[in-house]
Specification:
8-stranded antiparallel beta sheet; 5 helices; mainly beta; disordered N terminus; single chain; globular; 20 strands
């Protein structure tokens, strides 16, 4: 297993993007990410019987903190996916790198071999100091990128290779009917849409509580704990990204109610989808006392066309 914080020859410099919410009021903020990744194709084959013919199949684990992280997919008796997520061993929340050299350090987690979803890649990024803006996303948190493109396609989002076409592809947004309600693309005020190299264009939900102070509605502002980002490239949606603080994840273990231990957050939908696939209606964060693991997942997968 590979160490999450281990320096690699493939580690690249950190990069920043601007998150902007543009309805009546436009505000630009910075968002930090890293392009450091590690991937393995090894399949560990572990699975858990969920009852009723459903199973949870795990991907191969990679070292994270004092434990490990691995992907999983819940599949019903017909072979249809129920959810796709990342499972952290309870010990993984301890011993995480806290130095700035690991800020935004990320890695790709291998998916289980049985994968009936549209997702082809899961990348997680650990931000021990949070990132800009200081009053919004400065808490230690994880970014979970669920990509519907391959690693090669993601890595091809490279301005040094694409040259002038890079901006054209970034500015090529999905048609209006395929855009998610309340989401706006990332860009600085008055500037072209900005894409993060080897990631894509990030879209923010203007209803997000942590953004309300910048939108002129401080009475509605709440401290960031969890939010959901969408990603596009060259006219296509290519990733879904729950962004969740370490404190919120760990809080599922100590929650006093069942609803809080298994926090389910509904997602907005577009008027139409570009192709038929299983799409999540929500994402959730939970703690499993029996398995002693935290799970972050895209859930309520439904076949939509």
């Amino acid at each position: 297993m590979h160490s999450f914080s281990q320096p690699r020859a493939t580690r690249r410099s950190q990069r920043r993007i601007t998150i902007v919410a543009t309805l009546a009021i436009v505000s630009a903020v910075l968002y930090a990410c890293s392009d450091s990744r590690a991937i393995t194709s090894v399949e560990d084959g572990n699975s858990t019987d969920l009852g009723g013919g459903a199973v949870r199949q795990y991907g191969a684990p990679l070292t994270l903190g004092n434990g490990n992280a691995r992907t999983y997919i819940d599949i019903d008796k017909t072979g249809a996916p129920l959810e796709i997520g990342v499972a952290f061993a309870e010990s993984a929340m301890e011993g995480l790198p806290m130095d700035m050299t690991s800020h935004g350090a990320g890695m790709d987690l291998p998916l289980p071999s049985q994968n009936p979803t549209a997702y082809k890649l899961v990348e997680i990024n650990w931000n021990p100091m949070g990132h800009e803006p200081a009053t919004v996303y400065d808490q230690p948190h994880f970014d979970f990128h669920f990509y519907s493109v391959t690693a090669a396609e993601r890595n091809a989002i490279d301005p040094t290779v694409l040259g002038a076409s890079y901006q054209a592809k970034a500015s090529n947004l999905p048609i209006e009917a395929e855009r998610y309600a309340f989401y706006v693309p990332v860009s600085a005020p008055g500037a072209p849409v900005e894409a993060v190299p080897k990631m894509g264009v990030h879209w923010a939900d203007v209803r997000s509580p942590e953004l309300q102070g910048m939108l002129g509605h401080p009475e509605n502002a709440r401290t960031f704990s969890t939010t959901f980002i969408r990603g596009t490239w060259d006219g296509r949606h290519i990733f879904d990204e729950p962004m969740i603080t370490r404190a919120f994840i760990m809080g599922r273990k100590t929650a006093t109610s069942a609803a809080s231990r298994d926090s389910v957050i509904a997602l907005s939908t577009p008027q139409k989808y570009p192709n038929a696939a299983y799409r999540p209606a929500a994402y959730h964060v939970t703690y499993d006392a029996t398995a002693k693991e935290y799970r972050i997942a895209l859930t309520q997968l439904t076949y939509r066309q």
